[in-house]
């Protein structure tokens, strides 16, 4: 049971760490050096946290999927802010 909580915490942390990088990544031209840097910056941190938690390579798909989701959500939010729409101004 402890491993399940540790794994859930690791997945959530990978998601949260990746969101600001996805937000910042939207500011750069696609496939430029800063864009690639922001895309890959959370990977060493997630790797380190995975080893601290004692997990092996079998959890990489979960953490990778979570990190990609965080990047996508951060980028989506940046595009939404750039357009100037707020949550209260949604069109049904």
UniProtKB/TrEMBL annotation:
The organism's place on the tree of life at top rank: Bacteria
Assigned keywords, A-Z: Membrane, Transmembrane, Transmembrane helix
Residues that span the membrane, as ranges: 6-24, 31-49, 55-77
Protein name (record): Uncharacterized protein
